[in-house]
Specification:
By secondary structure, the chain is of the alpha/beta class. The chain has seven helices and 19 strands. The strands form five sheets. A five-stranded parallel sheet has the order 5-4-6-7-8, with helices on both faces. A five-stranded antiparallel sheet has the order 13-12-11-15-14, covered by helices on one side. A hairpin with a 4-residue loop joins strand 12 and strand 13.
């Protein structure tokens, strides 16, 4: 793996990282659930990250704003009853739902009947947990840990199958850092001679990245194919093919040479010119 300064450059699939947040006004319950969530994260460090535990909505919102974008996936654990705060968990959830549509919400409550109110607020809650009395917390820990594992799994499944984010994106290393892009926005990728880089051509820009074409192909997927050893094309972007001259044209007007060994494959793409 090549590095420039401290930043490694490569192309890899874009992994969903769900950020977890907790709001609970009871200090013992706060510490207890924070411990469970940290343990959950230790077992799922590639897919989730615990961002913080907060005793009131104001501190919670401040922490969320500082660490979460509107497009990020998040899993909020919210106590419904917050008698000393300026708002309860239902109101807090309403704010989060509007500001972070990519989020999932799990309510914590000591009274099961509070869960019915979540439907009245139309909050599309993922789940709710009925809190045990303080003297029974330890006895139910294993069961609750399994429940949390199931909740995280369901949250990730919602994200994977597109309920709130496109999951086709790849993470691309550049000299400026990382960008995420949809492979379908790429027309082609060309190797840059003697520079150990590739050029990716998008609708209105070109991106340089210090990876190999083989690495790019692995991440861009089966919708891309080498038309010659130095050029990888998006098969959906082919406009026409000239079999006689061995060239293909992409929808952005670019012309790419077809090697002899690939002519047979590219016959079926686009309008064939020149015989």
């Amino acid at each position: 793996m090549k590095e420039c300064g401290r930043i490694p450059f490569w192309v890899l699939p874009f992994l969903s990282m769900v950020k977890l947040y907790l709001c609970e006004d009871d200090s013992i319950q706060l510490e207890y659930y924070a411990g469970l969530l940290r343990r959950l994260i230790s077992e799922n460090s590639q897919t989730a990250d615990f961002q913080g535990a907060y005793p009131d909505p104001e501190a919670f919102l401040e922490g969320v704003v500082d660490s979460l974008s509107e497009e990020d996936g998040a899993l909020f654990f919210l106590d419904i009853c917050l008698p000393e705060a300026s708002m309860d968990g239902l109101e807090l959830a309403g704010i989060l739902r509007k500001r972070y549509p990519a989020s999932q919400i799990v309510f914590l409550t000591s009274e099961a009947q509070y869960a019915v109110q979540t439907y009245e607020y139309r909050l599309e809650v993922l789940d709710y947990l009925v809190k045990e009395p303080l003297d029974l917390l330890a006895s139910g820990e294993e069961k609750l840990q399994n429940r949390l594992q199931n909740i995280l799994k369901r949250c990730l499944e919602k994200e994977k199958y597109g309920s709130y984010r496109e999951q086709k994106k790849i993470k691309l290393g550049t000299k400026e850092g990382y960008i995420c892009l949809d492979p379908e926005s790429v027309f082609c990728a060309n190797a840059v001679k003697e520079r150990h880089q590739i050029e990716l051509y998008l609708d209105h820009r070109k991106i340089l990245s210090p990876v190999t074409l083989d690495q790019a192909k692995n991440c861009l997927g089966d919708g891309f194919r080498f038309c010659n050893k130095s050029c990888l094309v998006n098969l959906k972007k082919i406009r026409s093919v000239d079999l006689k001259e061995r060239f293909l044209w992409l929808e952005n007007g670019m012309r790419c040479e077809i090697s002899f060994r690939e002519v047979q494959f590219f016959k079926k793409y686009g309008r064939q010119q020149g015989g």
